[in-house]
Design brief:
The structure holds 2 protein chains of 2 kinds. By secondary structure, chain A is of the alpha+beta class. In chain A, strand 1, helix 4 and strand 2 form a beta-alpha-beta unit. Chain A is globular and about 85 Å long. By secondary structure, chain B is mostly helical. Chain B is built from 9 helices and no strands. At the A-B interface, helix 2 of A face helix 8 and helix 9 of B.
């Protein structure tokens, strides 16, 4: 059978004289080529906005910090006036309240940094809740709801200081998805920092808060943020090379000192 | 065209199908076995990071931990180990020259159809619900599509609905459809994870 096959094939190729790709091969290659051109074009065109932002070292400060973005160490929005002394350097952090790396950053780097540099550096935080963290959005909403009562920094600290009790499962230590437990704890933080609880609840589910979070997230994407925490010092992305938090802490202080000395 | 309209068995086509079953069965079996081993490792040590978890998007870990990864109450790769082993056997049997009866091909068609539907449900889950890709799973996606396509094309010879011309055309351009199929999935993958890919450029 196979011999027959071979002879018939031979005859076929003898007839045509030389080998030519079949119509099937031509069509298949054409499909691949068209797909490659379209996908390549989409990458070049669609990627342009993002790649220019993520590639270049600095990002437009207006995107990193909106006039009403939350800060940890400036007067609340409604009280802020032009008389506030302008700090020299701005540190912007895109964070997710439930992200373990963000909590570790807070514990090992930014909490102390905030105390040491509060007179010279403006600490801006932006929301970048990730879908993989089931309570990140709820936490962001409660922080923004606190901001509407002028208590953003207090809520920010309450959320990170109590990270273990609301963000993690008590036993396994992995990321929790217990909305009920988290809501209850957030209420208790709200009471501790002196929020009007009724208004807090109303604001948490308001579209205003939702829109603020979405805008933060959109700005983060424009700025090339892909993971949390991502920090920018005066518009330049902070890319630590160290392996330990002690290294990262040293590097960040060095970058801030250099920027302050300018 | 007249050659294809005839309902006789075409040895070259059957040989081709034998090789396809054998090779894609081997690829599928290797992928399913690798996933099973990773799953066992992960069960033994919950903090174990699978070798195919490379970054936030290419991450077998998140795919393996999803509820969709055990669609029937047990890990999906176990289905793969059984089904791809059968496929390898069928491939070898076809290569030995066995001319299977019609009911045999009906069985192959049912299996291949179940496989391709299941795989597309998993693709949907991977892209839009889990939000992560697993390279072993993607190898299975591709071989399952090929198996389904060529099994179906082969079996159309049992059906004479007057679609002889269409079948002849599809047979003549037999690699175009699966290529297009994979291109569409590649585009969906790119689109679903666009924000991630674009940060890599």
């Amino acid at each position: 059978m196979s011999q027959q096959e071979r002879t018939s094939k031979k005859i076929g190729s003898l007839k045509t004289g030389r080998w030519r790709p079949s119509a099937n091969v031509v069509m298949t290659v054409a499909v691949l080529a068209v797909a490659a051109v379209i996908i390549g074009g989409a990458i070049l065109f669609g990627g342009k906005h993002n790649s220019s932002a993520s590639h270049s070292d600095s990002v437009d400060p207006a995107i990193l910090r909106r006039p009403d973005s939350n800060t940890l160490n400036e007067k609340p929005r409604d009280e802020a006036s032009n008389t506030t002394a302008v700090k020299k350097v701005t540190l912007v952090e895109f964070l997710d309240f439930q992200c373990p790396a963000c909590a570790a950053y807070y514990d090992n780097v930014t909490r102390k940094l905030e105390q040491d540099y509060s007179d010279r550096v403006t600490f801006v935080t932006r929301n970048f809740p990730l879908d993989v963290h089931p309570l990140a959005m709820l936490a962001a909403r409660s922080a923004e709801a606190a901001a509407l009562q002028g208590k953003y920094p207090q809520m920010y600290h309450a959320l990170y200081n109590n990270y273990r009790s609301w963000a993690l499962n008590s036993g396994a230590g992995n990321v929790s998805s217990d909305q009920q437990r988290a809501s209850k704890l957030f209420d208790s933080y709200a009471q501790q920092i002196g929020l009007n609880l009724e208004r807090f609840h109303r604001d948490m589910s308001s579209t205003q808060v939702q829109q603020r979070i979405e805008r933060d997230r959109a700005d983060g994407k424009t700025a090339g943020v892909a993971s949390t925490p991502t920090l920018f010092v005066d518009g330049t992305k902070f890319d630590p090379s160290g392996n330990s938090f002690a290294d990262v802490n040293r590097e960040l202080r060095k970058v801030l000192d250099k920027e302050l000395a300018k | 065209m007249s050659m294809l309209a005839a309902a006789d068995v075409h040895p070259p086509i059957q040989r081709g199908l034998g090789w396809l079953y054998l090779l894609s069965g081997l690829i599928g079996l290797a992928a399913a076995a690798a996933l099973t081993l990773e799953k066992i490792e992960k069960l033994r040590d919950p903090s174990y990071v699978p070798t195919c978890s490379l970054n936030p998007v290419i991450s077998c870990g998140s795919v393996m931990d999803s509820s969709q990864a055990a669609a029937f109450g047990f890990p999906n790769p176990l289905i793969g180990i059984a089904a791809f082993s059968v496929l390898i056997t069928v491939g070898v049997v076809l290569l030995s020259g066995y001319a299977a009866p019609r009911w045999f091909w009906v069985g192959m068609q049912l299996g291949a159809t179940f496989g391709v539907v299941f795989v597309h449900w998993l693709i949907h889950a991977s892209l839009y619900q889990i939000g992560a890709l697993c390279p072993y799973c993607m190898a299975v996606w591709i071989v399952t599509i090929l198996i389904f396509w060529y099994t179906t094309l082969h079996n159309t010879r049992f059906i004479s609905l007057g679609g002889g011309r269409v079948v002849a055309l599809l047979t003549r351009f037999h690699t175009v459809i699966p290529t297009l199929w994979c291109v569409v999935i590649a585009v969906l993958v790119l689109q679903a994870f666009w924000s991630y890919w674009s940060t890599l450029i």
